[in-house]
Amino acid sequence: MTNNSRKSARVRPYLVTGGRTRSRRPLLLETLISVVEFDPALEKTLIPESWRIYELCRSRQSVAEISTRLKLPLGVVRVLVCDLSDQGRVRVHATSIDSEQDQRDLLERVLRGLQTIS
Amino acid sequence: MGYRPSPEGDGASAISAKIVIAGGFGVGKTTFVGSVSEVPTLSTEALMTEVSAPVDDLEETPDKTTTTVAMDFGRITLDSELVLYLFGTPGQPRFWFMWDDLVRGALGAVILVDTRRLSDCFPAVNYFENDCDVPFIIAVNQFDDAPVYPLEEVREALAVGPNVPIVNCDAREGVDARGVLTEAIKHALAVTG
């Protein structure tokens, strides 16, 4: 597993995860979360809610979807995902506000996508 | 040589984006989201603690009530590495304090309007004009029994500038809703410069 996103490790002041500042990416409602490498042994070490999130994210889920599917409040999901991310268990994917994301590129990609499915 | 597609598109480069669907209560936001979403409209609940006492009050327990706010959302997978989410804003004005969280990072916003209850969308228009920098467009949701007004009249009634696109749509029709989203992204591209 590569852990080389140091470039974007600047602290973002609006982090919404209980004051923790270690997450490299803010957890927006649409931020996708996925398990890096599934380890069934974690069931014994994670708290039940974290385990459920971990298990669910074997397939990519947004923060909002995790909240919906597990019936957990958004705030709780954010804190637990942040912890899982700090432990290197899950990957926090990029969104439009990612520092390395070119906004124009993304808009053009979305536009192409919308026109293709139309 | 040796290149392989990443398994199920679940690689590190996956990215997500969102468009916010705003407007008054009952204007068709959930219908709009549902007509383009590839999954049944989902609803997430944000647990809110409303404090009814002033922040500086040092009294031991300020009156707090816990409220659950439901936000509807849908998903469109645009390619194997790009997912677009649509979020409907909670309609009730008293939940406005959570709009900043909802809107953060949005590529654009659509304000849905019902011409029979035009003033219902004023708060949303005010918010996007003054309180955030997400580019927005207006979409008139043409209800069957509502009178049809020329879009320029709607613009005048809403007092939005000529730079804000206004379109007609039927929120029940996926083709229409996708058209509106396309307009929103085109507008965002135009103002991104």
From TrEMBL, chain A:
Pfam families, alphabetized: DUF742 (PF05331)
Stated name of the protein: DUF742 domain-containing protein
Automatic annotation (TrEMBL), chain B:
Keywords for the protein's UniProt record, in alphabetical order: GTP-binding, Hydrolase, Nucleotide-binding
Pfam families the UniProt entry points to: ATP_bind_1 (PF03029)
Coiled-coil positions: none
Similarity comment text for this entry: Belongs to the GPN-loop GTPase family.
Name of this chain's protein: ATP-binding protein
Species lineage: Bacteria, Bacillati, Actinomycetota, Actinomycetes, Pseudonocardiales
